[in-house]
Amino acid sequence: MESARVWYGFDNEHEKRKGAWINLTDLELLSLIWTNRYLTNKQLTKYGNQLFGYKGDSIQKKLKRWSNYAIVKIEYQSVLNKPPISCYYLGKNGINILKQEGIIKEEEKAININNYIRNSSHYLGIQDVVIDTLIALKTNRKNIISIHPNKDTYKNEVGEPFIVPDWVFRKGSRTLNIEYDTGLQTMTKIKEKIRNYIKLSKHKPEEEHYVLISVADNSNIYTVKYYDDRRTRVLNIKDTIIHKGADKISNLHFYVTTASRSPIIANNILKGIYPFDKSTFKSEQELFELSMEISNSNYQLVPLPKKEIFHNDSYNIGEIAQYELIHKERTNSKQVLVLNIVEEASVAALNKINFLEEENKNNKFKQEVSHLLIVYQSRSELENDIVMKNYETLKFTDTKNWPLLLQGEKQLTLEKKKGGRVLERTKGSS
Questions:
Q1: Which of 39, 104, 347, 363 could disulfide-pair with 247, CB 3.0 to 4.6 Å?
Q2: Nearest to 210 by CA among 221, 222, 201, 199
């Protein structure tokens, strides 16, 4: 946990202490505070404990000791009339340490916290998402550039900002913009943000633009108490994005989820897991075929061309698989199965799910589709994705349980649980 220490001297002759011993872990914490501007004791303790293996209140003691030497400054912030919480920002000696290491430029000066903290509930909520995302990335965080955006982050031809996100992560050529929603913004404001991201994607067509809208929930102690699971807010934002056609723009990718799930989704985007590419879909499709072969020996899957099921105007729905499902003992019994593998929180995925439901419900496919499977890569994604509640023709599952849907002696029914969709097995005939 601890690395070799270096003595950093303080220039000010009036300081009670002439310097401090600082190790590499300390430098990362100081850099984090500088980048994020303002962090709570809880956020810094969580970061230190989970990434560096500190125990108990070790980080808190370190921060208090640093505050005595002007390495950091402490401020007590009261949010929504709750008891004050201790927050830290970098002091002059902390800034000088980072300058000595070349981590920040020589001309950098102490920041005015009031320029950043206009709404403490909103700001600290953003920082929760940022800290938890860095923790989720583990060692991969070292390949991430974490940016506190400003008006210069995205400028148009005349130097005006397209938009100022709440936070930006960059990994190589991949940029993730994070917007934190406390639920107080009007949908008019949300629509304006969506329009601005559309403009940005058109201004920089050579780049892929990723946007994660994180909806505050009760995992955040700095917000009001929510008396719902935030499904309605998440779905309203997703529907607004769909209505604007933003999910159809090839280099613009929107994801919307709750604050508690945001670090997981951000992690998947930054690692390149989301959005799925053709190779991912192909491997999942092959896994499905193998699972069916092992678990459902009574059935034979025969791949069908897309044109056998979908009309020409439906070809832009992206990757999808379709099969003829033949019962080996009842050769005259043939059914059509459509397989759609989706990402949690993806707006494009929700639009596709809704499209397949409407097409199937209204008999718009070229052939009758008996099984339309919406498949997530994990049980957790299945349970936590927020989609509409009452689909009539779709079956939701994950890659571990999908063969169970087609076993003759069992059927699976949907029950809402924790704001998501989960499959429960029940007795019956399929």
A1: 347
A2: 201
Could you give phi then psi for residue 126, rounded to 5 degrees? -60, -45
> Alpha carbon of 359 to those of 191, 238, 306, 356, 405: distances in Å?
28, 20, 14, 5, 21
Architecture of the domain defined by 1-117: Orthogonal Bundle (1.10)
DSSP 3-state of 338: strand
Q: Tell me which amino acid residue 264 is.
A: I
What per-residue confidence (pLDDT) applies to 223?
A: 72
Burial class (CB in 10 A: 0-12, 13-18, 19+), 153: middle
Q: Which helix (H) or strand (E) holds 290?
A: helix 278-295
Reported as a single tens digit per residue, the pLDDT across 325-376 is: 888 777 677 899 999 999 999 999 999 999 999 999 999 999 999 999 999 9
How would you classify residue 272: left for phi > 0, otherwise alpha for psi between -120 and 50, otherwise beta?
left
Question: Taking a C-beta distance cutoff of 8 angstroms, is the pair 58, 119 a contact?
Answer: no
What confidence tens digit (pLDDT) does each residue in 392-413 have? 999 999 998 887 766 643 444 4
Specify the pTM.
0.91
Cα separation of the two ends of the chain: 56
- CATH code of the domain made up of 119-274: 3.40.1350
pLDDT at 31 over 60: yes
Residues 122 and 182 sit within 8 Å (Cβ to Cβ): yes
Q: pLDDT of 129-145, one tens digit each?
A: 999 999 999 999 999 99
Tally Cβ neighbours within 10 Å of residue 358: 11
**If you search the block for the tokens 């991912």, which residue do you land on?**
280
What are the pLDDT digits (tens) for 261-306? Answer: 999 999 999 999 999 999 999 999 999 988 888 876 678 889 999 9
- Is residue 80 within 8 A of residue 223, CB to CB? The reply is yes
